[in-house]
Every structure is written in structure tokens, then in C-alpha cells.
Design goal:
The chain is α+β, with helices and mostly antiparallel strands and 642 residues long. The chain contains 26 helices and 17 strands. A hairpin with a 5-residue loop joins strand 4 and strand 5. It is globular and about 75 Å long.
């Protein structure tokens, strides 16, 4: 995988802007820096070598006659089948790299190539025959891609890179900040920066020489139609999972696996062994924090599978945590599991170049508690009004601070009761769209109610979509457009690529995802739990090692940390850290209040640190001597693509 960027050439700033982008993206690709001016664009790539480690692989990659060139971030699995088909059609290859298959595939099939790709990717193709540039992003949003909306078109793997290079004004988008307050991540299309937007997963953006831009989907949305009436054969799913893991073990470097105490990563490790591999397993430990520490169970599992296992013990101070997250994340991001994910990525990178994770299993197969929570709504309807009122008044911890199954149920019941008599969609938003409490919101300047922001996101991303066939599928459809790319995949990509580690997600394989999309609700979910197909397969594949409690997935004991080790350091930092977005004194007072607002406090810290980094990037742009965003009256260099 790599870092990519590109920008319209104007005047003589190409080398300076390109150099800035290379500097910003180098952490994503430590094995090679490439910059060329092609077809009216400056094209940038930093390479992480995983397939074909030779020096023959260079970017931008060009076809035989130089009319088409590519910058590419990602991996295509099973690409050799496409390569053989293209060779039969007369295409000549200069490398063994999967990216070259994408290049010649687009030359042969145009946009019809993208549905044929099984993998993760964000890319740009400059086509001099059509005088246009095409951006495309994989179906799930595994790989990031953002673009400017101002007068000078540019794109990159990292929004901050565009600000540092003077390709964006870098002004804060208050609407994105409000949505961050609701969800603790920024849903599509926001980035927190006014003139930079995400390219939506599963879409392509075409920009012609006259500046006209067209966006269209190249693949249907997940869970957009009713499921099949018949249940999916679990043997078919089991086969698809094994094939996916087998494909994703292919690399010219060593491949490891992130191993928590959960079903998904345990199943991946077992399937990797079945496929003939012995991947190194990596786990993070929070010693002394009860069921937050899944390292013992992971160690027993690794021993049963006969694979090497290494444990990284977390001992991160507050300032270290804040600074590491701010340095890795280009968008406002407050999922606290980014802290152990960063530590785990650094730890794994010392041994391997690629690591597989279990991300996507809960999203595809309805594994979250909230996927069952709408059934609680009907139960509440039978309770006396006075009891419902009491439920709505329960003071509960939020986010990662729902510290046990009982507290989790209390939290959901409380928020469902507070939502009142709303429909299923309103009840769902009460569960997921009020991540910051009212006292926490009081420390964010100029932010209104979270409900207004969350309702806007729900409307924009189509939460209410009767064509899906059920409320569960409507929720899954929404989360595949919001939570999966905005939170989980953002967390994993930025953490891993901050140290040049490629993270692969076999559960989001096209064949596996298509089977999940076909499954009727009853096959995924019961009153007792979700993700039933994966649990049933894991029961056959994964050794029974016992122990554990509720799955955590590298969650962070924020309550304990803010009440203990982090308390003094965080209080001082907040009081010295007021910004245009955060009232630091109010945040420090929240810490001192004696009430548990640990999740709020981490969100406030993350947003403060993000804004500080944005200020640094704006300053870097000014130091380039190029101002910001270019002069809208400048003509693109060369006029036409060459």
C-alpha cells in the first residue's frame, strides 16, 4: 500500500507542492518516493512494497504508449487471473505488480474494471485520450481518498497533506464538528475541513479538462435490496472465508494477524493455519484492567493453533496518547481504541509488513448489540410509564465506558427510553448519534444539539430506506456508509499506515460480503446474539480455550485512566489548551466534576489536538511561499492533457 496525491499544475509551483506532498505522505510509503508532472497534473506516490519488491515498479505507472498513467494505493487479490486475461488480449506487462493489472484493465475495460477488482484501493488515472482524470475508491472504503472542492482540483490519501501543500484553505468545517460531536467520527463526505471532501466508497469521480466533475457509483450499496428468501448455505460461506484468507496471505513480505479475544480475529487465525500458514499473532494488553485485557485468552488460542504470539503491554501516558493520535489522524477522530491500535501497529511493524484484522464481521453479519436493540423498544412499550421515566433518567457511561454487559443493557435501555415514542430510526439514532453528553458538548464552542446533526447524517446517507426490506438491513446499509468507513476503517488505516504497515481485512472480501448481503435477518440474528454464521463456523474451527468475558476488541479503560494516571496531566493540558473549537477550562472542569465523562474527555482532547495540527499545517503552507489554494484566475499549466 501507499500514499497518493495529485493536483492541477498552475504556474511554476509543481516541484514545491509535489515535494510537500511527498513529505506528508512518506509515512504511508517508506520504500519509494515518486513525483512526475503528467497531463496537466502533478502526480505523487510514496510506496510501501508488498508485491514485487523490485526497483522496476515505479509511479506514476504508464501503459505501453504512455496515454494512460496511474497512482495507486491498495492491494488487488487474485489479480493474476485478470492479468492472464489481459495478456491474452495483447497487453504487455513490465512488472509483477498488481497495480499494473489495474492500469491495463482500465485501458481495456474502462470503468467496467472496478466491479471486477477484489481488494482494497484508492487510485487516480490520467487518460490523455479522453482528456480526463478518474478517481476511484473500493466498495467498503478500506483505503482513504479525499479531494478539494475549491478552484484548484487536488486529491490525496490524507487531508492534512493537502492543507500543508497549500492546496486547501484549511478552514474548519463547523458542520463536520457538529457531526463529530454526535458520532465521535466524521461521516461522509466531511473531513473537518471546509474545502476537502471524502470520495465516497464504491464511487468514481471523473474530471475533464474543462473542469467539469461527475461522480457516479460503480457498485450497488450494501443491503440496498431485500435479502434472498432462502438461507445461505454455511458451507458456501466457510469456503468463501477460507479462500479470502488464502488470497490475502499472498505477499512478498511476511503477513501477521492482529489477535484479540473475539470471534472474528480468532477465526481468521484459525483459517490462516488451515490455509497452510503460521502467521505471527499480535495482541495488546491492559494489565490490571480486568476484562479490558484479552491477552491471556489470545495467548491460549495462539498456543492451541501453534502460531507464534507476541503481546504489547500498554502503558501510555495522556500526552503520549493525544500526540500519537493527532499525528496519525487527518480527520477529527475520537474512537479511543485508536490508542492501542497505534501501539499494536508499531509493535507489529517491527516484525511484519502486513497484518490481517477481523474488521467487518460485526458490520456484515449484525454483530453489534445495537442491531438487536430495536427489539427492546417493543418490550419497553409494555412497561409502566413511571418505570419508563425512571429508565430515561438513569445516569450511564457512554461509549467505551459501558464496562459490562449489564451496564451496556442499562445504557441502551436508558437512551431508548429518553428517545420517547419515536420510530425505529429515531430510536436507533438515540443509540448511536448522541456520543457526547450535554456537559461534554458544553465545552465545544458553537455546537448545537447532537440530535440535529445526527438526523442530518441519517437523511444524507439514507437511513430510512424501505427498499432494504427490514429495519435491520436499513441500519446495516446506513452503517456500511457511515460507521464502517468513517470509524473502523479510518482507525485501522491511519494507525497502520502511520508506521508503514499494511492492514488487510479478509472479512470484507467481495464474495464474503455478497453472501452476507444475501442472508435473511433470521440467519444472522436472534434474541440471544448476532453474527450467528461466523459464530457457528468458529465453533468448528477455533479451539475452545475458555476464559474471557465479553469481547472488547482492544477497548480502552478510559474511566480508570482519567480517574487515575491521566488525571493531573490531562487537567493541566486542558487548562492550557483552549482553541477556537474547545473551551479548555470547561473541559478541565468536566474532568474535576467527579462524574464519569471519560468518553467526552477523550473526544475533547482528540478534537483539540486535531485543531492544533490543522493550525500547524496551515503554517506549513504559508512557509512554502505559495499562500493557500492557489489563484483561481490561474490557468492550468499546458491547458490540455499530454
Amino acid at each position: 500500500m501507499c500514499g497518493i496525491a495529485g493536483f492541477e499544475l498552475r504556474g511554476d509551483d509543481g516541484e514545491v507542492v509535489g515535494g510537500s506532498l511527498l513529505h506528508s505522505l512518506r509515512k504511508r510509503g517508506p520504500d519509494g518516493d515518486f513525483f512526475e508532472q503528467r497531463g496537466g497534473y502533478g502526480l505523487v506516490q510514496t510506496r510501501l512494497a508488498v508485491i514485487d519488491l523490485s526497483d522496476h515498479v515505479r509511479y506514476p505507472m504508464s501503459n505501453e504508449d504512455g496515454t494512460l498513467c496511474l497512482v495507486f494505493n491498495g492491494e488487488i487479490y487474485g489479480y493474476m487471473d485478470l492479468r492472464r486475461e489481459l495478456e491474452r488480449a495483447g497487453h504487455r506487462f513490465a512488472t509483477d505488480c498488481d497495480a499494473e493489472v489495474v492500469l491495463h484493465g482500465f485501458e481495456e475495460w474502462g470503468p467496467e474494471l472496478f466491479p471486477r477488482l477484489n481488494g482494497m484501493f484508492a487510485l487516480a488515472l490520467v487518460d490523455s485520450r479522453r482528456n480526463e482524470i478518474t478517481l476511484a475508491r473500493d466498495r467498503s472504503g478500506i483505503k482513504p481518498l479525499v479531494m478539494t472542492t475549491g478552484p484548484r482540483f487536488a486529491f490525496a490519501s490524507d487531508a492534512m497533506a493537502l492543507v500543508s501543500a497549500g492546496l486547501s484553505d484549511g478552514d474548519v468545517d463547523r458542520g463536520s464538528v457538529a457531526e463529530f460531536g454526535a458520532f465521535h467520527y466524521v461521516p461522509f463526505p466531511g473531513t473537518g475541513i471546509k474545502d476537502i471532501e471524502q470520495v465516497e466508497p464504491g464511487t468514481m469521480v471523473t474530471r475533464s479538462a474543462d473542469g467539469k466533475t461527475e461522480v457516479r457509483r460503480w457498485t450497488p450499496l450494501f443491503f440496498d435490496q431485500p435479502p434472498a428468501s432462502q438461507e445461505v448455505d454455511l458451507a458456501e460461506l466457510e469456503s468463501a472465508l477460507l479462500e479470502s484468507v488464502s488470497r490475502q496471505l499472498v505477499a512478498d513480505v511476511e503477513v501477521g494477524v492482529f489477535l484479540s479475544g473475539g470471534v472474528d480475529s480468532s477465526l481468521l487465525a484459525a483459517l490462516a493455519v488451515e490455509a497452510g500458514a503460521r502467521p505471527r499473532a499480535f495482541t495488546v494488553s491492559f494489565q490490571g484492567h480486568g476484562d479490558y485485557d484479552e491477552s491471556d485468552r489470545a495467548a491460549r488460542l495462539a498456543e492451541s493453533l501453534g502460531i507464534p504470539h507476541q503481546i504489547e503491554t500498554m502503558d501510555t501516558g495522556f500526552l503520549e496518547a493525544v500526540e500519537s493520535v493527532a499525528g496519525a489522524y487527518d480527520v477529527p477522530f475520537a474512537d479511543s481504541s485508536a490508542i492501542p491500535m497505534l501501539a499494536l501497529s508499531r509493535f507489529a511493524r517491527s516484525e511484519v509488513t502486513v497484518a490481517m484484522s477481523g474488521t467487518g464481521g460485526d458490520d456484515l453479519f449484525a454483530g453489534y448489540y445495537r442491531h438487536r436493540a430495536h427489539r427492546l423498544r417493543s418490550a419497553i412499550g409494555y412497561l409502566p410509564d413511571r418505570l419508563v421515566k425512571r429508565l430515561g433518567e438513569i445516569e450511564v457511561d457512554q461509549g467505551s465506558e459501558r464496562r459490562s454487559g449489564i451496564n451496556l443493557a442499562r445504557s441502551y435501555l436508558s437512551r431508548i427510553a429518553k428517545a420517547g415514542a419515536g420510530d425505529d430510526h429515531e430510536q436507533y439514532l438515540a443509540l448511536v448519534g448522541e456520543s457526547t453528553s450535554d456537559p461534554g458538548l458544553g465545552a465545544i464552542r458553537g455546537t448545537g444539539e447532537t440530535r440535529t446533526a445526527s438526523e442530518g447524517v441519517a437523511s444524507r446517507l439514507g437511513l430510512d430506506n424501505p427498499s432494504s426490506g427490514s429495519i435491520l438491513r436499513e441500519i446495516q446499509r446506513f452503517e456500511m456508509r457511515s460507521y464502517l468507513p468513517g470509524d473502523l476503517l479510518t482507525k485501522e488505516d491511519r494507525a497502520s499506515m502511520s508506521v508503514g504497515l499494511e492492514a488487510r481485512v479478509p472479512l470484507l472480501d467481495e464474495a464474503v460480503a455478497d453472501l452476507a448481503d444475501r442472508m435473511p435477518d433470521r440467519q444472522k440474528l436472534s434474541l440471544r446474539g448476532g453474527k450467528l454464521p461466523l459464530r457457528q463456523i468458529a465453533a468448528k474451527k477455533v479451539p475452545a480455550v475458555g476464559g474471557g468475558g465479553r469481547k472488547r476488541g482492544f477497548a480502552v479503560p478510559l474511566h480508570d485512566l482519567f480517574a487515575g494516571r491521566w488525571r493531573n496531566e490531562a487537567g493541566t493540558w486542558f487548562r492550557e489548551s483552549s482553541t477556537s473549537l474547545i473551551d479548555g477550562t470547561a473541559a478541565a472542569d468536566l474532568l474535576d466534576s467527579g462524574t464519569s465523562h471519560a468518553t467526552d474527555l477523550w473526544a475533547l482532547a482528540a478534537l483539540t489536538a486535531w485543531e492544533r495540527r490543522l493550525d500547524e499545517c496551515r503554517s506549513a503552507a504559508l512557509e512554502l511561499g505559495k499562500g493557500v489554494a492557489g489563484d483561481p484566475t490561474d490557468e492550468p499549466a499546458g491547458g490540455k492533457f499530454t
